[in-house]
């Protein structure tokens, strides 16, 4: 960058300069202080901090340096490992020194967002400290996003993070085979609206503190978590997402203003019930059930949804939902129904027929089928009188594979023939 270019950029207003610097890593933003007097303190007003541990590694933690395959000399590999071990301590100290100096010299101006990526695989493998977040919280950030790589350690998140009055958005994404337990002494986040946690072991104690200490929480997103708590109860929560989570307790979800619900969970033990969710507009349901799970009772709680996606991926879930049909009242608001089916629906259409009959205002039906289905068979199950009906008209029917693949023409024709028993006319038939 020549002097003319520096001068042109330097003439820009402070707001523009700090916006530009917010796209750089925090370390690079600080280094601009050497350009000229104009830039000496510009870094201190940047509203977004982008912090990444890898910028402080001296010799790497490079994957190729740990490759013990091939004909590498054993003594050379030992020397590389010893060198890396020594440099990691220096890198950790360098990072801590930088963060301390940076945060101590940054004025308490409005801080919008903190993005931090930590790789504890390269540092202390038994204890992961995030103590510098104490100083970050004193800057009253609106958002904190933390991504952590590594596993098999205890994670030290300062309690001050869970009592930040300004915080509206908190995201902690861990990459590990071992679930991490987060256990703050208390939680007091009055402004928090969105919380995302992944690869966390979630206990009753933490759950109770969370829902009591976050009176403004509107969106809760848990992924790849082990859930050891029994209740999600909120009067303000609007969106709830439980993705690839394992449930170990009898759980009740009771949220008066819930609008969106996504549940892709493994009921390792216990079951789940839905109450007081009459505001629900769209729902995505996939449950992996054990053989000893009690009867489900969820269809009756979904009666007001406008869009429903059911992933019927296990025979046990299909059987449980069939038992739940008597508890189901009409889905009068349902306009779109998406079903992922992993059985020969032509030979056993009972559950789908029941869902169609209870959806009198349905406009769009999407069927995602197992492309590996074998030879089409004749119906094995008689459709009882209670589901003998026929739609006059469906606007759209989509038929496609559940994954990337191709459905056989025989299967598609059989599905269309089966649907013809229940739908007189289809406006738009789409084959994926």
Automatic annotation (TrEMBL):
This is F-box/LRR-repeat protein. It comes from the Eukaryota. Residues 6-41 form the F-box domain. It holds the Pfam family LRR_At5g56370. It comes from Carex littledalei.
